[in-house]
Amino acid sequence: MDPIIKKQRIASLILKEKIDELSKSEKEELTSWLQASPKNKKIYARLQEKSFSEDIARYQQISTTRGLDNYRRRYVQTNKRLLGKWYWAAAVAVFIIGIATLFFYQEEHPTVAKTTISPGSSKAMLILNNGEIISLSEKNKTEIVATEELSIRNEGSQLRYTASENTKNEQANNYNELIVPKGGEFTLTLSDGTKVWLNSQSKIRYPVIFNDITREVYLEGEAYFEVAKDPQHPFHVNARNGVNIEVLGTSFNVRSYTDENAIETVLEEGSVRMSQGKDAVILSPGNKAVYLPNEPIQLTTVNTELYTAWRHGQYIFMEESVENILKQLSRWYDIEVFYSNEAAKSVVFSGDVRKYDDINTLLEAMEIAGGIHFRINGKTLIVSYSE
User: Fold this and answer.
1) Which of 48, 268, 275, 354 is buried most, with the most CB atoms less than 10 Å from its CB?
2) Rounded to the nearest 5 degrees, what angle is found at the Cα of 72, between the Cα atoms of 70 and 78?
3) Rounded to an integer, what is the distance from CA 31 to the centroid of its chain?
4) Interior CA angle at 118 toward 117 and 120, to 5°?
């Protein structure tokens, strides 16, 4: 058995013993572990003497359950469908992580270098139809275009398009492009009122105003959409490889990075149709659709918060590999990730991190959770794994 999985297994047995839920076979398994090494007996004795409250509290800020609770209090009102079986599974997993944290802490202390890696900020680059490039940030709030027909305004963290009823239809042939670099985020309000949250390392191409037939945009990277309702004019998001998402009025997330094979759509409200060629699926709230080249589109039911909390300033991970976690965080913190050995990529972790905190707290918790070690060299995060 993998050493980390073995440690997590023993941690879960100790937890069950604490709450009197240890079966006969599990008791035998725990006894066998105790007898295997004097070191194991010492760790077990320390765990029996020590209160768990302080140690678990230290890591509550990065626990999945706490993160989801905080997220709901801030942003989710009465969406009961998000609660269910997955939530209790998450709670059990986090209890195990809590006790495992204390378990591993008996063996070694975290070694993350104290170099601070700062989070990203609101910044983007706007390319107008005439090729003019405008840098956008909170420091340069300005009216970019101001006419009787059309207004384009940078509001610091949001670019807003406002069109009058007299706007000429030829504006529909004028396309702008908004590019968000690594370490950036930005919000876009299109001329029809549709709101788009763009994640780091993403770009979207769109008409200044939409035509009289359809509303169509082109996305590379990740974005969350709140589409303005207009049944007469369907809204289309075009991703890579001919993947198209069609909606009438809804809230959903699209992930289509060029360095990832999969293209994902996660639906929170409404209904969308995801298609690629003749292959198509209809999503209901709580569904995720995934397209992989040369495979049918797969439809599953998920906890949508794990995929959409980023737009509210939080990343939440549930049983996610270190490689996938750091791929997401590297975009936001504008860092490169180097793995000293391949084994480090597949270690699984659950937790959450606020986007606007430095990265060290999460790294320390991942180190304690077993076997992973981090070293920071400038803007490079060096990751290694030892059994």
Assistant:
1) 268
2) 155
3) 40
4) 130
CA–CA dist 354, 372 (Å, integer): 21
pLDDT at residue 336 above 80? Answer: yes
pTM across the whole model: 0.75
The pairs formed by 198-204 with CB atoms below 8 angstroms and a separation of 24 or more are: 198/124, 198/222, 198/223, 199/223, 199/224, 199/310, 199/311, 199/331, 199/332, 200/120, 200/331, 200/332, 200/334, 201/257, 201/331, 202/257, 203/177, 203/178, 203/179, 204/177, 204/178
DSSP-based three-state secondary structure for 32: helix
Task: List Cα–Cα distances, 219 to 33, 109, 179, 305, in angstroms.
Answer: 52, 43, 10, 21
Contact 370, 347 (CB under 8 A): yes
- Rounded to whole angstroms, the Cα distance separating 79 from 335 reads 35
Give the CA-trace dihedral at 350, 354, 359, 365, to 10 degrees: -30
Q: pLDDT tens digit string along 164-196?
A: 876 666 676 889 999 999 999 999 999 999 999
Q: Which amino acid is at 306?
A: L
The identity of residue 98, as a single letter, is G
What are the tens digits of pLDDT across the range 219-242? 999 999 999 998 888 999 999 999
Kindly state the tokens that stand for 66. 């706490």
Beta-carbon neighbour count of residue 272 at 10 Å? 26
Going by DSSP bridges, is the β-strand pair 263-269/287-291 parallel, antiparallel, or unpaired? antiparallel
Q: Residue 27's closest CA among 9, 13, 45, 41?
A: 13
Long-range contact pairs involving 301-308 (C-beta distance under 8 Å, separation at least 24) = 302/266, 303/82, 303/86, 303/87, 304/82, 304/253, 304/266, 304/267, 304/268, 305/68, 305/71, 305/72, 305/76, 305/82, 307/253, 307/255, 307/264, 307/266, 308/224, 308/253, 308/266, 308/268
- Of 317, 330, 331, 334, the residue nearest 383 (C-alpha): 330
Given the structure tokens 């936001």, which residue do they identify? 332
pLDDT of residue 308: 92
**Cα–Cα distance, 134 to 149 (Å, whole number):** 21
CA atoms within 13 A on the CB side of 268: 17
Contact 232, 259 (CB under 8 A): no
CA–CA gap between residue 95 and residue 81 (Å, rounded): 23
DSSP-based three-state secondary structure for 51: coil
